Amino acid sequence: MNTVKQVIDQKVNTIFAVSSSDPVERVLILMRDNRVRSILVIDNGDLVGIVSQGDCAIKVLLPNSNPKQVLVSKIMTANPLTVTPSNSLEECMAIMVHKHIRHLPVIEEKKLVGLISIGDIVKNIMESQDSQIKFLETYIKGHGS
Fold it and tell me: N or C: which end of the chain has fewer CB within 10 A?
């Protein structure tokens, strides 16, 4: 199975981040404008948390709090689970399934290098299966006539 590095190398790896002292409104705007479902929280160059759409909805919008007044630090998941570029996608999938999360920051030598999502993994699996199907079709057609 492929590694995190292979997936990260194939995608445009723009990292969307806020600081823990930003208002949640900034997170919501970044999510809307960039069509992403999680935002990393970085303070002084260090990854300190992650905020998902669910965090915003459940911890801010449902209680009728004002996203302009609630700080990211109040709703973020601090010290998020991370993976390295050498982790397999199978390992990432297992973490996501067991921890009920959809995004994993990727850290290499204490530096944030990307973010991998469940969507990235599913896309990779689908592409891999498509390649295998095409190979088998070619094999069958080439040897069946």
Answer: C
Architecture of domain 4-144: Roll (3.10)
Instruction: List, for residues 53-82, the tens digit of each pLDDT value.
Output: 999 999 999 999 999 999 999 999 999 999
Q: Which residues of the chain register pLDDT less than 50? A: none
C-alpha–C-alpha distance, residues 49 and 4, integer Å:
20
What is residue 143's predicted lDDT score, i.e. its pLDDT? Answer: 62
Q: What are phi and psi of 109, to 5 degrees?
A: 50, 50
